[in-house]
Amino acid sequence: MTVEIVARPEPPTGLRRLLFRLPNRLYRVGLGRLVPARFLYLIHIGRKSGRRRDVVLEVVGTREGSYYLCSGFGEKADWYRNVLATPEVDIQVRGRVSRARVVPLEAEGGADVMAAYGARNPTLGRKLARYMGFAVDGGEADFREVGRRMPFVRLDPA
User: Fold this and answer.
1) Distance of alpha carbon 67 from its chain centroid, rounded?
2) How far is the C-alpha of 150 from the C-alpha of 152, rounded, in Å?
């Protein structure tokens, strides 16, 4: 196993934040179908403000109708803290909208999801791990270790 933490990412600011939020704007104006299907539009409630919030996130796995997401910025990500506080959310994948319930995963659940993602998408898996601050060799053990160290959730559509 050669997992190495290279740099924990900070949420984007400035121009980078605007670029990251571009898919949100596409969904808001009804153009979500232009966003690749591997991304999901998550509408949730702010834990402090009680206001509607939204974010577009990469789906790292699906099984039996559920979607699996990883908080790439760790436990401090606003969307992650918000959905833990209010686990009832709305989701949209391309044109399909539904209600869902958020279920946090234990470390081994995250390891399983990340290992499966890395096996399906080895290049994207290495890039995703790098984005989250980990240098990996691309083997299953490395992806499992990244999955153990990052927070994952499962979205169960109603």
Assistant:
1) 10
2) 6
Amino acid (1-letter code) at residue 136? V
11, HSE (Cβ side, Cα atoms, 13 Å): 12
Cβ–Cβ < 8 Å for 41, 25: no
| Cβ atoms of residues 3 and 134 within 8 Å | yes
Residues 36-71: tens digit of each pLDDT? 888 999 999 999 999 999 999 999 999 999 999 999
Q: Is the whole-model pTM more than 0.70? A: yes
Q: Kindly give, in sequence order, each residue whose CB lies less than 8 Å from that of residue 104, ignoring residues fewer than 6 positions away.
A: 84, 151, 152, 153
Q: How far apart are CA 25 and CA 13, in angstroms?
A: 17
Map tokens 């704007």 to a residue: 25
Task: Give the β-pairing of 88-93 and 66-70.
Answer: unpaired
Helices (H), the chain: 14-20, 22-28, 78-85, 107-120, 122-131, 140-149
